[in-house]
Amino acid sequence: MSDRLGVVLVIEDNPYSLELAAEVLEGADYFVLRAGSAEAGLAIARETKADLILMDIELPGIDGQGALAQLRTDPRTRAIPVVALTACAMLGDEERLLAAGFDGYLAKPIRTASFASQVGGFLAKRGGQR
Ligand code: MN
To answer: Which of 12, 19, 108, 129 is a Cys-bridge partner for 56, taking CB atoms 3.0 to 4.6 Å apart?
Structure first.
């Protein structure tokens, strides 16, 4: 794990979207942890040191905002930056998600050519802030 650029946990219930994001990041030398639900992602986040979490907003069961709230109340996961990954790319969404406590926002469908560098930007920001 340690020789990679970083460990990214992707929480996404659409199997195709999950695999696409994961494979793009793996191709850019990130170590990727995959979760198909918030519940599974929360369990992984508590047990594994992820450097960044990419969180789908619309999930079955606990949704992305509910999962973010749980991450922020747990000392083991409180400091991990969480970037929202959402298809609802309407004007004002970014503001709403940042106000909800997300560290950033990436619109779906992801742009495969720039996705890894966007993720790298969030990781670099984290290094400076914490
Ligand atoms: Mn979804």
So the answer is: 12
Q: What angle do CA 104, 28, 45 make, to 5 degrees?
A: 50
Q: Which run of H or of E encompasses 19? A: helix 15-27
Rg (CA), the chain: 13
Record the pTM: 0.92
Residue at token pair 């369990």:
43
Q: What is the pLDDT of residue 130?
A: 39
Which contiguous run of DSSP H or E holds residue 35?
A: strand 31-35
- Of the candidates 78, 113, 107, 82, the residue with the CA atom closest to the CA atom of residue 94: 107
Calculate how far, in angstroms, residue 58's C-alpha sits from the geometric centre of ligand 1.
4
Q: Could you tell me the distance, in angstroms and rounded to a whole number, from the CA of residue 52 to the centre of ligand 1?
A: 18
Give the pLDDT confidence of 110-121 residue by residue, as tens digits.
999 999 999 999
Centroid of ligand 1 to alpha carbon of 3 (angstroms): 31
Please write the tens of the pLDDT for every residue from 62-82: 999 999 999 999 999 999 999
- Report which of 16, 11, 28 is spatially closest to residue 106, judged by C-alpha positions: 11
